[in-house]
Amino acid sequence: MRIIKVALLAALTMIVGCSSRVMNRVEEDRSATYTAKEYRIQPGDQLDVKFFYNPELNELLTVRSDGKITLQLVNDVVAAGLTPVELTTALTKAYAPELTNPRIAVIVRTSITDKVYVDGEVNRAGLVNLTGPTTALQSIAQAGGMRESAKPEEVIVLRRADDRSVKAIHVNLKNVLLGEGSAQDILLRPNDIVYVPKSAIANVNKWIDTYIRKNVPLPIGIGYDLN
Q1: Total domain count for the chain?
Q2: 119 vs 164 pLDDT, higher one
Q3: What's the CA gap between 112 and 134, in Å, rounded?
Q4: Of 143-147, 196-200, 206-210, which one has max mean pLDDT?
């Protein structure tokens, strides 16, 4: 009898250990808030460069794929990878030989990362702009709403953590649509993927591997590493 108990205890320990390793990659995370990091400019961002004392030099431009912007008098300047403050400092230095007192401000008008990707049983799958606090249901509405074949109680939000692992957040939007459980309708973060399935997803780990690696055409600025 004692041998049986020891064997059961060992088996249980192995199961718990395996479950912990799986959940390191796929875990519940319903936090609506997070600490924002200082934004760094990326290719595709739209920048507003303003000169306080030389408004004729003002520019509204898009960061090129090589990470540079072209300005009057100083030509190409590297912008990608810099914060708006760092770019302001770089431009002030670049214009110092040309202007008596260069006072410059850099404003990110449109950020390529302020988007989420909505896929699955929606009418217009694709990128959705985050123009302010946006919930999962609101992003689906911007994607044309759910199809009749959708399973709103099984919606999944994929989110990349700081360590580049993927978190899968189950969201029951059926209750939200019925006026219940509004806390389920979580706030999205830039680069989240909202997936509305046609049927229940039984094995979330396997589904993420298949979806991320084989199926979804991730746009620039959105990337997931499952290794």
Answers
A1: 2
A2: 119
A3: 16
A4: 143-147
Q: Is 199 helix (H, G, I), strand (E, B) or coil?
A: coil
Distance of alpha carbon 39 from its chain centroid, rounded?
Answer: 13
CA–centroid distance for 120 within its chain: 17
Give yes or no: residues 147 and 89 share one domain.
no
Name the one residue in this structure whose structure tokens are 């189950």: 170
pLDDT for res 172? 92
CB count in 10 Å sphere of residue 160: 17
Residues 179-183: contacts with CB under 8 Å, at least 24 apart: 183/30
Judge if 106 and 122 occupy the same domain: no
Encoded amino acid at 63, one letter: V
Digit-coded pLDDT (tens) for 34-85:
455 678 898 888 999 999 999 999 999 999 989 999 999 998 999 999 999 9
Q: Which residue is associated with the tokens 């303003």?
A: 50
Residue 105's pLDDT band (cuts 50, 70, 90): very high
Kindly tell me the burial class for residue 167, based on how many C-beta atoms sit within 10 Å of its own C-beta (0-12, 13-18, 19 or more): middle
Is residue 82 assigned to a domain? yes
8 A C-beta contact, residue 140 and residue 152:
no
Burial per residue of 78-116, b for 16 or more beta-carbon CB atoms within 10 angstroms, e otherwise: ebbebebeebbebbeebbeeebeebebebebeebbbbbb
| Residue closest to 195 by CA, chosen among 147, 149, 158 | 158
